[in-house]
Amino acid sequence: MNNLLRSVLLFIFTITLLTGCSGSSVSNAKKIPSITNQVAGDLGITNDQAEAGMGAMMMLSRNKLSPDDFSTLSRNFPGGGINLINKATGMGVIPGTIGTTTDVMNALSKLGISYVTAANFIPTVLRITSGLDGNTYGLLSKVF
Asked: CA dist 54 to 13, 115, 142, Å?
């Protein structure tokens, strides 16, 4: 009976650990598309345009923030700063050409986003990230 009880407890403990581990990665996996989908949906643009636009924002953030602050932002921003920068680069945004907010706006335009929509892009991303943990909004606010 003790062996059976031990086996059941061990089984429950193992399931709890596995569920907790897989739950956290599922949660992170959902977080990435949710911000992309939300930005894209709010602005009427594609997910690729949203990711590349956020990548342009990350390029400027990398230039304006300290290395430690950018590392924190990159780690906490859904999709990861470096991944978004790579997406932007893959869609034609040239690293090193983003030094001002105007450069981000021009990159958005080159991605096929209208100037009216581009004008709302940064405020939309800031609004959405204001609810995230990890000081994402605070660090973005230092740049934008």
From this structure: 41, 16, 16
CA distance 121 to 53: 8
Report the C-alpha dihedral over residues 40, 47, 97, 101, rounded to 10 degrees. Answer: 10
CA gap 38, 121 in Å, rounded: 11
Q: How far is it, in rounded angstroms, from Cα 22 to Cα 64?
A: 36
The amino acid present at 89, given as its one-letter code, is T
Model-level pTM greater than 0.85?
no
- What confidence tens digit (pLDDT) does each residue in 88-108 have? 999 999 989 999 999 999 999
What's the pLDDT tens digit per position in 29-88?
A: 334 458 999 999 999 999 999 999 999 999 999 999 999 999 999 999 988 889 999 999
Q: Beta-carbon neighbour count of residue 122 at 10 Å?
A: 21
